[in-house]
Amino acid sequence: MESYRTALVTGASSGIGRAIALELASKGLKVLAVGRDKNALDQLATKAKILPVACDLSKLDSLYAVMDGEEIDVLVNNAGLLTRSANLVDLTPQDIDAMIEINVRSVFQLTRHVLQTMVARRRGHIFFTGSTAGFTPFPGSAVYGATKAGVSMFASALRCELLGLPIRITELVPGRVETNLYRTALGAEAAQKKLYDDYEAVKPEHIARLVLTALELPDYVDVTRMEILPTGQVVGGGQIAALTR
């Protein structure tokens, strides 16, 4: 990690992305914090070493312009979209396109753009924020889950392509973390009642600490995948256990 100087974190306006941006900046990295909420990013930029980049990931050319001249050592593909929790027939075509655009297309394209320079410099670490929904089917999440499954396979295939190069790939697979993703899809009150009232949830800062742990290991150690769940959630599933012990 000593050779890493600059990081780019998408979805940095709130939640996991914000926590990761703060964690990396606290360790001395310059962080390009990318998101759509300019006000939230400006507040984040009051911290040292954080450069706010307000942009829509469906329009990557504007982000590439900001990145011009920057040598990105750490890329955190964290931005994700769950338009709403609903059966496929109740989603609009726009819902489907938006999730594919943000969760898949922008991730693949941005990774390709950054990876070219990482290969040339022979250093770098790329993170992907996946989801347990990419491994286990959940009702109301067919499209979202499929996009996260695609990201997981993408990350695995990249490891094969980069074999022998000192470039690491880590997939983060959170269970239910307290973020705006579910509050946007379900509504704040419904998300609180359905997802968070019955157990102590994982917090974004816990994910950020794990990112730092993976980065600080020697370059020849690749933490390929981390599944992060509250102790009350069954691994890979939606079952929540009553905390009776």
List the helices and strands and how they pair.
Layout lengths: L5 E5 L4 H12 L3 E6 L2 H7 L5 E5 L5 H8 L6 E4 L15 H29 L2 E6 L12 H20 L5 E8 L5 H7 L1 H9 L7 H13 L8 E4 L17
Parallel strand pairs: 1-2, 1-4, 2-3, 4-5, 5-6, 6-7
Helix pairs in contact: 1-8, 4-5, 6-7
**How much strand content do the residues show?**
15-25%
CATH class, please?
Alpha Beta
Uncertain regions: pLDDT < 50 for 5+ in a row?
A: none
Tell me, rounded to a whole number, the average pLDDT: 88
Reported by name, the CATH topology is Rossmann fold
Q: Write down how many β-strands occur, each being a DSSP E stretch of 2 or more residues.
A: 7
The shape, in one word, is globular
Give the second-level CATH assignment, the architecture.
3-Layer(aba) Sandwich
The span between the termini is: 41 Å
Number of helices: 8
What's the number of structural domains?
A: 1
Question: Can you offer a commentary on this structure?
Answer:
There is one protein chain. With 245 residues, the protein is of the alpha/beta class. The chain has one domain (6-228): NAD(P)-binding Rossmann-like Domain (Rossmann fold), CATH 3.40.50. The chain has eight helices and seven strands. The N and C termini lie far apart (41 Å).
